[in-house]
Specification:
The protein has a single domain (3-181), classed as Rossmann fold (3-Layer(aba) Sandwich), CATH 3.40.50.360. The chain has five helices and five strands; from the N terminus they run βαβαβαβαβα. The chain has helices spanning 17-28, 57-66, 85-95, 121-133, 161-181, and strands at residues 3-9, 33-37, 71-76, 108-113, 145-146. It has a five-stranded parallel β-sheet with strand order 2-1-3-4-5, with helices on both faces. Helix 4 (121-133) links the parallel strand 4 (108-113) and strand 5 (145-146). The longest helix is centred in the C-terminal third of the chain and has 21 residues, at 161-181. The radius of gyration is 16 Å and the shape is globular. The structure holds flavin mononucleotide (FMN).
Length: 182
């Protein structure tokens, strides 16, 4: 049986470093795991007024896609020391209607990626705050603050060996953590 892990990238940018890191993690998944990419860029802004018996189709698609997943890996940029609004919106959409939080119980991994020196620490921890409320057990160690990312890449898609090895370590720890919970 394949274990399905949702991949969410909090950047909509074509050349996103977070997306590059996400692809590198996906390439490291063992054969019996599948990366399920969860696009979040087209989700209408969350409003309770729209959350009726017929919510926006994009919301329903996200909720339906998340529900059967075994775990979720978030890759977040840092915008003004927090998470981009598009990522927070996706969390909000999946958390409602009240009592139907599709994130609940799913083991999570938070990876923050930035060209800056502190590796998106602020975004990483703001995201963790929301995941606590969303009832997502989240890997504590090793922490994944990927700073100075431009210097960690050998070309447009590949990371230097040391970084790839660190990604492998984080991923292995996360899969072990997740498998103990599901
Ligand atoms: C609105 C905005 C706010 C930003 N704030 C921060 C910040 O607080 N910390 C940081 O390290 N980088 C900040 N940056 C720079 C991002 O880290 C950089 O654009 C990064 O490449 C975004 O991730 P991506 O490559 O996955 O799109 C900001 C960028 C934008 C557009």
């Amino acid at each position: 049986m394949t274990t399905k892990i949702g991949f969410i990238v909090g950047s909509l940018r074509e050349g996103s470093y977070n997306r590059k890191a996400a692809k590198a993690f996906a390439a490291l998944l063992p054969a019996d795991y599948e990366a399920v990419w969860l696009p979040i860029g087209d989700l209408p802004w969350y409003s309770e007024d729209l959350d009726t018996a017929t919510p926006p189709a994009e919301w329903q698609a996200l909720r339906t896609a998340v529900a059967p997943l075994d775990g979720i890996i978030f890759f977040t940029p840092e915008y003004n020391r927090s998470v981009p609004g598009v990522l927070k919106n996706a969390l909000d959409v999946g958390s409602r209607p009240y009592g139907h939080n599709v994130w609940g119980g799913k083991p999570a991994l938070v990876v923050s990626v930035s060209p800056g020196a502190i590796g998106g620490f602020g975004a990483n921890h703001h995201l963790r705050q929301s995941l606590t409320f969303l009832d997502m057990p989240t890997l504590q160690q090793p922490e994944a603050y990927i700073g100075n990312v431009a210097k960690l890449m050998t070309d447009e898609t590949h990371f230097i060996d040391g970084t790839t090895q660190y990604f492998q370590l984080i991923l292995t720890k996360y899969l072990d953590f997740m498998n103990r919970l599901i």
